[in-house]
Amino acid sequence: MACVGVCFGTPEAPCLTTVPIRDATFSVTSICREPKADEARADEANDVRLPASESYFLMLYLEDAEHADIRADGSCTKVRHFARGTICLVDLADGAAIRLNSRLRSLAFVLPKALFSETAELSPEIGRRRLICRRGEPDSVLRNLGTALLAFFTGTGTAPASLRPVAVAICAHLLHRYGEPIEGSAGKAQGALMREEPGTTQRLIATQIGRAKSHLAIHALSLEDVAHACGFDDLGHFERVFVGETGVTPSVWRRRGLH
Question: pTM (2 decimals)?
Fold first, then answer.
């Protein structure tokens, strides 16, 4: 499963896909769905069902929306309001289903778990992580990245090369903000680090700075967004390390277009 328009009853919905790192595919679909109220079975007509897969599903709300979760027994939870700029993040191991109660305008992402394993390899200090589900969570980084993505849908319909760094930025941010270590992985990562030859820390910093340079090309991201997406403690930490590696501040790097 990649483009999910058909699941939302909008098979014509535009979808962009890319392979941002190695093998796993990143996909994002622009959803615009009006509720169906004139049919005999209006409730079921507004159901959205996502099949089970080894993926996470992320929805970024581009405007306020309302929907309920559909439980495994077919009953529904209470209708919930989701504000513009918030997200829902769910594990599709058992699939997922919702019943729309309003117009839905959103970006819908299908993110294979293998993609997060590949992303974690870019930041070995993180170790393997699983994502914690979230519903209605405000997220300014994803809101800004969503703004950058919307511009891609106005083009020719093919994924631009610049989609790849945005996809990596999204996955890295999700790992940092919503990831929790998989049991046993943190210790293995630490043990491996202790056995590494001298220079390991410098290589990790070089990896972070390399990612930061790519993220700085995404002007929808603030410097704070870039710092958090690349695993720095805060903007001050990011700026100190970046200056130490490049000789200029991140803002000067971006302004000069050195990326």
Answer: 0.79
